Amino acid sequence: MVVVDYMSIAFITSIPIILAALGELVVERSGRVNLGVEGMMAFSASISVAVSTLTGSPLIGLIAGGLAGVILSTVYTLTVIGLKLDQIVVGLIISLAGLGLADLISSTGYRVGYNIPHGSTLHNTLIVITIVLPPILWLILYRTPQGVELRAVGYDEHVARERGLRVDLIRAVTVTIGGLTAGIAGAYMALVLYNGRYFSGITGGWGWLAIGSVILGYWHPIGVAVAAYTIGVLLTTKPLLTSELGLPPTLVTITPYIAVIIALTLVTIISRRKPSLIPPKPL
User: Fold this and answer.
1) Can you list the residues of the chain whose pLDDT is less than 50?
2) Gap between the Cα atoms of 186 and 195, Å rounded
3) What are the chain's domains?
4) Above pLDDT 70, what percent of the chain?
5) Model pTM greater than 0.90?
6) Exposed end of the chain (fewer CB within 10 Å): N or C?
7) Can you name the residues that pair with 112 across neighbouring β-strands?
8) Please, are residues 181 and 22 in contact by the beta-carbon 8 Å criterion?
9) Is 201 left (phi over 0), alpha (psi -120 to 50) or beta?
10) Which of 129, 101, 112 has the alpha carbon at shortest distance from 42?
């Protein structure tokens, strides 16, 4: 029963990582990388708390958080896809700007809002969405013409343009989806995991863990969800590492990040030795 409880808690904890990772997966499948996930999550967390405070509704706060992520994703779309600026630089700028804006908004007094209670209808709905999203995304990517087109754009942009695909539009849509999921993920952290509270550093690097989950999951919806959940397990069992194994708290705090770095290193080594393990080509 203890194991089952920990598995359940780990899933609830990993929901924001899963959501943000699946959104980033869609972006990367289109041939772009958005390193602004961390900032998007923080900005959305702050917005969700502020809006839930002003309206008295955690649902509206959650929606506002998702829209906040979309707003920052629009900046990425205009600069990277529209103006053809460097995606890495823009992503890092968005990440830093999102963190700064989040703290700025909270500094006006919006630090405590209305939370989404565990077991509530809204919370259960978010759980169901997180469970069904990976298989639905798999069906879209691998069993629909739109999914094949999206993967084709990511695989070879020039050939996709020659075939008449609207590359920039497809990428703009994927970036918007990524922003929406990152926004909902950030709002979930504030309204659910931290009971309607925002504080500086609330995301704690989880946006970067989401990006790492995309690689660990081999750019596949099911694999990404499993990788993100595994990270959630590590985050959930951190207290046990201190109480049961006697590890220093500082070391315990960085354990999930060390594990991800090691895993990413192994994935890189394996993929270089076996070219067949490159991300799957479109059909």
Assistant:
1) 1, 282-283
2) 13
3) 2-277 (1.10.3470)
4) 89
5) yes
6) N
7) 197
8) yes
9) left
10) 101
